[in-house]
Predict the structure.
Amino acid sequence: MPGSPPRSITHVIFDLDGLLLNTESIHAAVNQIIAQRYGKVYGPEAKAQVVGKRALESSQAFVDALALPMTAEACLDARYELLWERYSQARLLPGAQRLTEHFQRVGVPMAIATSSHTKNFALKTVHHQDWLGLFAQVVRGGRSRTQSRQARTGYFLARSPAPGGKARTLPGF
């Protein structure tokens, strides 16, 4: 707002996939491999139906969009088998390291909040352990309301201590 003093950034909460880490290309390649098994093409129309959903819902959308002769559960199993072979190839997106190192240098605490479960997170970040050391906390997926809400709405609410020991709520994107 005009006349308002600038606000300083006090904390940052990042999502992992597609914001810091390039896993989108891995998912697209895996979906294309499965589609090709059935003579189909995984294109933009199918992708629009698949992305942004929880794993089983995404698999059902994938099966439906391409009219694949398999269940969502079988598709999910096939996807995970291929993803687990490839997740270690995930690379930081351009600018992610520079941005996070900048926040570290200027003393802004950072966290990662991701819907990725522990195994997937470990595979995706196997080559990024030093970089992960920049983050004060990493919250991984589970079956909590926070994880479900993030999967539906694309944001997290995290509790963080404020000066004086009072809790404050911080939105993160």
